[in-house]
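We now fix the convention by which a protein and its fold are recorded. The integers have meaning only within a learned vocabulary of local backbone shapes. A complete example follows; check for yourself that the lines match position by position.
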Amino acid sequence: MEGFSIQKHEIIFEGFLVRQANYLQEWRRQWCVLTPEYFCSFKSRSDYTNPTTVIRLDQCLSISSDPASDGPGASFCVTTREQVMWLLAETPHLRNNWMARLGRQLLPCDEFA
């Protein structure tokens, strides 16, 4: 998405994940960033311009894990109407951390009242 950028102060959570490419279905290590409005992936760390993927969190339908992937890597899935994006974290702990942080951003504030 050319021209799109994230400001450092907007970032809630960031780190490397392995992401399955949309078209070639190859797995690529990407720097992923979560903000209050977006989940983005970038080719490199600390360059928050021209993301390879941008998901508006208000378009997200679900976040789910693959219970069979509790080995050395741990996969999870972010689903929107337009795409299903599989991601792989280095450990189940990191997967759970990403899923929890994504989930908190998806819940309306009044859910916590």
Remarks:
- Residues 92-106 form the longest helix (15 residues).
- The radius of gyration is 14 Å.
